[in-house]
Design a protein that fits this description.
The structure is a single chain. By secondary structure, this protein is α/β, with parallel strands linked by helices. The protein has one domain: TIM Barrel, CATH 3.20.20. The protein has eight helices and ten strands.
Length: about 260
């Protein structure tokens, strides 16, 4: 994972900024600049890093643009990203997107052997007998885990798994998702109040026009942020961003003005 973003104005210390440029569901029909092919993903990573992003949340797609957990695609894309933007952290997703089961998610982690991965606790809970294997594998191969949490129930499940040793003691990072993947989803900063407070590192992503305002609130509270076309295509005024890098640049400008 790349170093935390420390640039800012005056005493401003920016949070770690993770770009999520595509996700599992959107494609060129949603935005012409949403990256699908490997070369598009790499070019987007390059432009977003230039705009100030520290890392990339990586989804790969198959030949017809569908969400994939193919290890070969992941390894190929990671290799190209490391060549093009060696300073960026690379986090792969294990998202099922209603397609992949827990065994497939486990195999993806085993075959890719990533440095960093996001893993939804509610998805792994579909096969609780495999949960210890998933988190033990990550510990054994040195894969940093970011737990995806959608609500307080997910946070409670994670706490139980931590107490019971299913999740290892140093696997503490969390991504708090404000809302759901739905066409009309509009997150608000107050959605953050639904999650319990805790000392462990956390990051936020949000949907819709108030994405940046939600991330601003998270940064003010000491969290890190994930931004990009996976979650939102539009400005607070409802205008469509030119590309992912434009959203990153606007978010950084907002944080520099408002986070101390």
């Amino acid at each position: 994972m790349a170093d935390r973003n420390s640039e800012g104005d005056g005493d401003t210390k920016l949070p770690y900024i993770l770009i999520a440029p595509n996700g599992a569901r959107r494609g060129h029909q949603d935005h012409a600049a949403l990256p699908v092919a490997t070369d598009e993903i790499v070019e987007t990573a390059r432009s977003c890093h230039a705009a100030g992003a520290d890392g990339i949340h990586l989804h790969v797609r198959d030949r017809v643009g569908r969400h994939s957990l193919d290890a070969g695609l992941y390894r190929e894309t990671i290799a190209e990203l490391r060549q093009a933007v060696p300073q960026m952290g690379i986090q792969i997703t294990t998202e099922s997107a209603g397609v992949f089961d827990v065994q497939a998610q486990y195999e993806c982690l085993r075959q890719v052997h990533p440095e960093w991965a996001s893993i939804s606790v509610r998805e792994i809970a579909r096969a609780p007998e495999l949960a210890p294997r998933v988190y033990a594998l990550c510990a054994d191969q040195g894969t940093r885990v970011q737990h995806i949490l959608y609500d307080a129930a997910d946070a409670e499940l994670l706490a139980r798994w931590q107490d019971g040793g299913v999740v290892k003691s140093d696997q503490v990072d969390r991504l708090l998702v404000l809302g759901r993947y739905a066409t009309s989803q509009e997150s608000t900063p107050r959605d953050l109040d639904a999650f319990p407070n805790g000392p462990d590192p956390w990051m936020v992503c949000a949907f819709g026009r108030q994405e940046h305002l939600c991330l601003q609130r998270a940064a003010q509270l000491g969290g890190d942020v994930r931004v990009g076309f996976e979650n939102s295509l539009t400005t607070p005024e409802g205008e469509v961003w030119v590309d992912n890098a434009a959203s990153v640049a606007a978010l950084i400008n907002l944080l520099k003005r408002t986070v101390k």
